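# step 3/5: fold
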Amino acid sequence: MKLILKLVAGILAGILLGFFAPDAIIRLLLTVKLLGGQLIGFTIPLIILFYITSGIASLPKNSGSLLGKTVALSYGSTIVAGSLAFLVASFVIAGLPEPAAASADAAEKLTSFIKLEIPPLFGVMTALATAFLFGLGISITNSTQLKKVVNEGRSVIDLLLSKVIIPFLPFYIAGVFAEMSAEGTVFSTLKTFGVVLALAIFMHWAWITIQYTITGLATGQPPVKLIKNMLPAYFTAVGTMSSAATIPVTLKQTKENGVDESIANFTIPLCATIHLSGSTITLVTCSTAVMALSQHIAIPSLMEMLPFIMMLGVTMIAAPGAPGGAVMAALGLMSTMLGFGESELALMIALYLAQDSFGTACNITGDGAISLWVNKFARQNAEPAAEPQQEN
């Protein structure tokens, strides 16, 4: 929550400085923005490589069909949630007023003091392919040495994110909003911000309702009761902004919904890593809004957006545990598949961090629904073996 307050302070400071500060101060902020953007761009492929490799290599072994069903349900939930979010967002955002055009004079006059490029070691798609190759390879061969290297690499990136990039974000965002203020586009952007944040939270609850309505019908339990039992986990996640930190509460509430202890102990920690439907809803909704604000990116159709949503569902496995980790993992896809530049990526970071806690809460609440389905499948598989043989 401190990060959100710092982010808001960065936005306000950037707006005020953009309007009232001398050009030298604004150029200094643009230099900070340039340095932050280059560092983020350099780190994106490393996040994807180490986190996805570590995630795939660390999936539970010898779990049979239940593992496959849990992964399939989690991925399916993420894809459907992202697709519905895009349909709703594209409809709502299409009705908003056209964004204000940037002032050409301000854009030409205000530039950073330095020019610096830090090219990444490899591209995003190369990182993704390499992560799958080594993740699956480590899982199959059970190579402890490679797994140790990957986990230690992940720890290094964790440290970079938590100690450098995440604390630096408010200054980075201040530079972005100072530039928008100087160009005269900040108020139309903020107006869209408000609509998008409200829409994302609405979509979170709509998806939770859909999940538990279908799950309640399938399991013969009242959906309202199922959701009510999961509310402590939801509000814990709002406060912690972490699926991992909420696992104990999620486990307890899932068991109260009638899930067997062994199934809950297996599915909840796994889904905390691979089921991020709430984060996907936010990212898709915010991406659609940023495309609407952009002067050179058109909002695609659902079929054109679907490959991005499907890749996003995979990339969410790489989401670091730090606040804002999901958007950091997804920035590479946005730049390669949606054509986002530095300004669009900065807006995505600001939009996502503003409601990160609600997306996390949607994630873990949905984990309870996935667990109920896996529990249902496990009981169905156990029933034939438990039936006594009839005498002839």
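# step 4/5: annotate
The chain has a mean pLDDT of 81.
# step 5/5: archive (pending)
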